[in-house]
Model the fold of this input.
Amino acid sequence: MKITVLAGGIGAARFLHGLANVVEPSSITAVCNVSDDLTWHGLHVSPDLDTLMYTLAGLEGEFGWGVRGDTQTTLERLRELGGDEWFSIGDRDLATHLYRTGRLRAGSTLTEVTAALVTAHGVRVTCLPVTDEPHPTIVRTGEGDLQFQDYFVRLRGEVPVTGFDFPGRDARPAPGVLRAIAEADLAVIAPSNPFVSITPMLVVQGVRETLSRAPGKRVAISPIIAGSAVKGPAAAMLESLGYEVSATSVARLYQGLVDLFVVDTADEALLPEIRALGMDAVATDTMMTGEEGRARVARNVLAAAGFAESVA
Ligand code: GDP
Done:
């Protein structure tokens, strides 16, 4: 069986880690958001791809990003030199960005470099950037248009958002992306931020259309539980954009793209209104606390999607 997961950062990485522990990892393809990518001192940083890679390798930092136990010698030295270092990069993590940037400058594509990095980390899940082309998310706020990391890290996601722009929306999908979605027995929209992780992938040429016609089972997992985001700005974005902060609002954004919407047990009461949107809906435990929690949620989602027999 082939599983393809549309993935943002931490929520997606935890789900994929759980999934890779309950099915054969080589049967999984993660199609990953690159619209959070940034240039840091001239280096190409891909936060979501790196979060997936480090998490799948069991190396992720305490808060879900970076490398666990990493040192910050370079960052501290940059600060001593007078740099305004609001984006934190550890020393081991830095090697990833140096390697990626060197290979990109020498002519490799992001897909090729990602495959090499993932293999070097012993990860057997296929990780594909959704596109090899520049495709940034611009966050519209009362303080003007901001690059995503400027909004998310420098301003800690605290300014109200009025909208988004994707100037690279005509980006072409990276090799293998559309096929991975079209040929999946199960296509999953991970519990990721719908506005800044999933939508930027859906606007890449052909991705939305391919998912909307994919013959496999299509499932989304709500990142909103009981009216709050587990972490990050998804709830604040729903609110400032005028949506009700609920799993139902996320389900509405995915209308026509999924057959089944999975909410947490805490949101069981929302099932009738989600079903009224024209998709099936189930409630199960989706809280990925600890490694065991990740595997449990993966098992719950596979069972809800009718693939219980695929679980090892
Ligand atoms: P980011 O790019 O690192 O912010 O990562 P994502 O877009 O993948 O994930 C952020 C979303 O994942 C947030 O909206 C969280 O609410 C959601 N999330 C994180 N952990 C969990 C969890 O354990 N369960 C569920 N259902 N959602 C989660």
